[in-house]
Amino acid sequence: MAQINIRIDDNLKEQAEILFEELGLNMSTAFNVFIRQSIRQGGIPFEITTQVDPFFSESNIKVLQESIKEASESKFVSKSLEELKEMEQ
């Protein structure tokens, strides 16, 4: 059986070990899963892109920050589903 040595940031390795342990895997098994999936799919088994998730776009962050500000200032009205249905009638 072949052995592979890689260099990885200590913090990144620690985070990966925690995640894999939660999934019931060790680092070696996780890498084997990644390699097998790559071979099965004929490429990296997930999208690699420079595109940022649109959820984190500058305009969306501004809307989220404004919503947080309004919530902290108690400017939201809370209604139950039943109350909303009654308003429709």
Can you describe this structure?
This is DNA-damage-inducible protein J. The chain is mainly alpha-helical and 89 residues long. The protein has a domain at 54-88. The protein is 57% helix and 0% strand. It has four helices and no strands. The termini are far apart.
SSE diagram, text form:
Elements: H1 10-22, H2 27-41, H3 58-72, H4 81-88
Show unreliable segments. none
Spatial extent as radius of gyration: 23 Å
Number of helices: 4
**Main sheet properties:** none
Percent helix range: 55-70%
Family: Belongs to the RelB/DinJ antitoxin family.
GO biological process, one term: DNA-templated transcription
Protein name: DNA-damage-inducible protein J
Keywords: Toxin-antitoxin system
Concise description?
With 89 residues, the protein is mainly α.
Sum up the structure in keywords.
mainly alpha, elongated, toxin-antitoxin system, RelB/DinJ, Arc_rbn_hlx_hlx, 89 residues
